[in-house]
Amino acid sequence: MGDGRQVAVLRLGHTDYTEVEQMMRDLQTLRLKGEISDTLLFCSHPEIVTIGPGARRDGIVVPSDYDTTDVDRGGGITWHGPGQLVVYPIFKWDMEDEANVKKITSKIEIWAIHALELLGVQATTDDRMQGVWVNGSKVGSVGLAFMRWVSRHGFTVNYATPKGRVETLDGCGLSAGTTTSLDRVGFEINEDDLVQALIQTMPGVLGRNHAKS
Predict the structure, then answer these.
(1) Phi then psi for 97, rounded to 5 degrees?
(2) Which string of DSSP letters, residue by residue, matches 92-159?
């Protein structure tokens, strides 16, 4: 259970990516100064594809009918849009099992897998790429950026994305069609249930508790 530190949870709704990105930077600065506790953002975005350094280095081309923006997190390209829950932990990662980026990423994957298990979805990891996988398809991405072990960015879970949008994109080392949405692999999940499952499983996996306001 870790030290049971308290996490402030903010549900931002359907919010423009650039607005939330600036909020993350501001919150990261406050967390570094110790002026706020660990803070967890839940939201969704109007459609946009974020392009990480790996994708820029590999020259991955995003089709022209997608809006794009460059980002500084780990990972390649990530689709954002309706039917996707986006989770941004502005956390100070300094517990015993959070010694490096790989361990932190693994912890986040396990958290998402436990939450989905509560909802009857058997998710796993996959050697092809970090993230969350169901029945051989990728339904969630993980990509973080750190400053002195306080994170920005986070992870996504696709639960009911518009058909054909996320499937069309190539990822870093993944062919188009590998990434999809839970509703396309037989699971009907809504955003509220997903948020509640993540909050419920957070203490057991992350050692952090939802701070009740």
Answers:
(1) -95, 25
(2) B--STT-SSHHHHHHHHHHHHHHHHHHTT---B--TTSSSEEETTEEEE-EEEEEETTEEEEEEEEES
Task: Assess if CATH 3.30.930.10 describes domain 5-206.
Answer: yes
What angle is formed at CA 166 by the lines to CA 164 and CA 170, rounded to 5 degrees?
110
Cβ(147)–Cβ(182) below 8 Å: no
Residue of 80, 194, 188, 182 whose CA lies nearest to 123: 182
Q: Is 43 a catalytic residue?
A: no
Tokens of 88: 């941004």
Cα–Cα nearest to 38, from 50, 47, 28: 28
Residue 52 one-letter amino acid:
G
Query: Which residues of the chain have a pLDDT value below 70?
Result: 1-3, 170-174, 176, 213
Q: Whats the size of the chain, residue-wise?
A: 213
Torsion sign, CA atoms 100, 102, 105, 109: negative
User: Structure tokens of 157?
Assistant: 């879970």
pLDDT at 172: 57
Among 172, 174, 185, 199, the one annotated catalytic: 172
* pLDDT for the residue 1: 42
